[in-house]
Every structure is written in C-alpha cells, then in structure tokens.
Design a protein that fits this description.
The protein is mainly β. It has helices spanning 35-44, 191-194, 266-269; strands at residues 3-8, 11-15, 53-57, 61-66, 70-76, 81-83, 86-88, 94-96, 101-104, 112-117, 148-150, 174-179, 197-199, 207-211, 227-228, 233-235, 243-245, 252-253, 257-261, 277-282. A 7-stranded mixed β-barrel has the order 12-19-16-17-14-13-20. Strands 7-6-9-4-1-11 form a 6-stranded antiparallel β-sheet, with no helix packed on it. The termini are far apart. Residues 24-284 form the Carboxyltransferase domain.
Length: 284
C-alpha cells in the first residue's frame, strides 16, 4: 500500500476541518489552525474538502514515498523544501516517486505549514474527525519517526493548478476585533487597540498568550460563571495579559471576554510565532 514514511516528525499533527457542532456535549471543534492554507493544499492536489493533512510547526519534517508515487503540496508558512536534495517551491504540486524524500526546513516567516497528499491521509477518525485536539487529547497521536501514513482515496477533482504564489507574512500584522460581551469588565478596553502586543513563548493551539501590556480588571474580586467560548475570543485572566483562543480552545471559559478576533483574521493569528508583535483594530 502506498504510504508516507516519516523519517523526522518535528512538531507535526494530523488536522482536517475539525468537529463542528459538538460544543454542547463538551467537545471543541479543533481542526486546522490556518484553515485557508489547509484548504488550499487539498485543492492543489485535487483532494476532497475535509480530508486529513499534516500541520507542521516550524518545519523539521522529513518524509519518504513508499510502495507507490505520491502527489503532494505544501502551503502556509513558506518552508524551504528539498526533494531528494533539490530545492522546490511551496504552493506547487510535487511528485514523490517510490524512495523519494521531501524535507521541510524552517520558514523565514509564519509558523504553520500544511502538507496535503492526493487522496488524503487514511488515518482512523475520532468522533468524525482526524484532527488532533491537543487540549482534549482526541484524535490521532502526534507523528513519530518510523510511522508509515497510508494514502487514502478521497479524490475530488483533477489537479487543475500546478502552482500558486508562495505565502509571505508581513511584520506586526493588524487583526480586526469586535467588542466582547465583557468589555466593561476591564478598566480601559481601549488599551487593547492602542497597545502593541508580543506573542509569548508558551502560546500554542489552545491559545496565543500576549505580553507587553496589561488590561486591568475593573473589579478583580468579581467572579464570572463559566461561559461559552469561541475561536478568536480574547480572555483577560487576573494577571491582565490577554489570551486569544485558538482552534483547541476549551468550550467554556471563566475569564471575561473583552473582544473577539473576526473569523476571517484568525488564520493570520495562527501564523504568529513567539516573539512576533501584533496589533488590534476595532472592526468597522
């Protein structure tokens, strides 16, 4: 059976479109952090929407085709690609013949890259999805060296586009936000948009932690019952440093949500790397 042999796993996870519609029973959506890049990778190789792909953080992945030829594409953070030692571009359809190796280096900008294969990756779904939810521990285990990933048959279309422009990410992006239900719980919500924030090192798929300022609570002793949470919600813990929820966020939260990143900008949020700066602006 045709498959991908993992020589170096890096920080790679299986991801797809996630588990929508299950928050009422305590299960978050999860899914690809940068949905547009994930979807583009599948489209390039003619794979059905929602098929499983690999989400790779800061490169470090090396794969080899075994027992057959594999068509694949890499999108998102523009990692240097070496196919049998030969440089190849991201955003293009690549052919791995049996024995060929593809190595993903460290991208100059951005954080997450997506590797999709024609037919998708045939791993067992959990609760209807092949996404790894890092908070709940649901879904296929993280990749390890020596794994062989079977190629599926989820083909939707011919490969009509050979390549697309490689994605580049500008410095200090500006993300749009709308006011949250608890914006009056902080003394000065305007500080959210007037400050420049820095992505903290302990950011992950659960949430992007921000440093460089404080949003002080108007009444630190005031208690808030747990409320439903969404991707992009900006919570303010007692310490005052905001946390922006990512795809693996909990389904409820007990800290006030002062703003929410508009859904269209959460893909850019997913490409912020530790130490990078970001600003917010109120959506019009």
């Amino acid at each position: 059976m045709t498959g991908l042999l993992i020589h170096q796993a890096g920080m790679a996870l299986f991801q797809d479109a996630g588990r929508p519609g299950r928050a009422a029973i305590g299960i978050g959506r999860s899914g690809a952090a940068d949905r547009s890049s994930y979807e583009l990778a599948n489209r390039l190789v003619g794979t059905a929407p929602g098929a499983a792909a690999l989400e790779v953080v800061l490169g470090g992945l090396e794969v080899q085709a075994v027992d057959g030829t594999i068509w694949l594409a890499v999108t998102g953070a523009p990692v240097p690609l070496l196919l049998d030692g030969r440089p190849e571009p991201t955003g293009a359809v690549l052919v791995l013949r049996p024995g060929s190796r593809l190595t993903l280096g460290v991208p100059p900008n951005g954080l997450r890259s997506y590797l999709a294969v024609r037919g998708g990756l045939d791993v067992a779904p959990v609760l209807g999805s092949r996404s790894r939810d890092t908070l709940a521990g649901l879904g296929p285990a993280p990749l390890a060296a020596g794994d062989v990933l079977p190629i599926g048959d989820e083909v939707a279309d011919e490969m009509r586009v050979d390549a697309v422009p490689a994605q580049q990410y500008d410095d200090r992006p500006v993300l749009r936000v709308v006011r949250g239900p608890r914006d009056d719980w902080v003394r000065d919500a305007a500080l959210l948009t007037s400050s420049t924030w820095t992505v903290a090192p302990d950011s992950d798929r659960v949430g992007v932690r921000l440093a460089g300022g404080r949003l002080d609570l108007a009444d630190p002793a005031r208690q808030l019952p747990s409320e439903g949470a969404v991707r992009g919600a900006i919570q303010v813990p007692s310490g005052g440093e905001p946390v922006v929820f990512g795809p693996d966020h909990p389904v409820t939260g007990g800290y006030p949500v002062v703003a929410v990143v508009v859904d269209a900008d959460t893909d850019r949020l997913a490409q912020l790397r530790p130490g990078e700066q970001v600003r917010f602006v109120w959506a019009q």
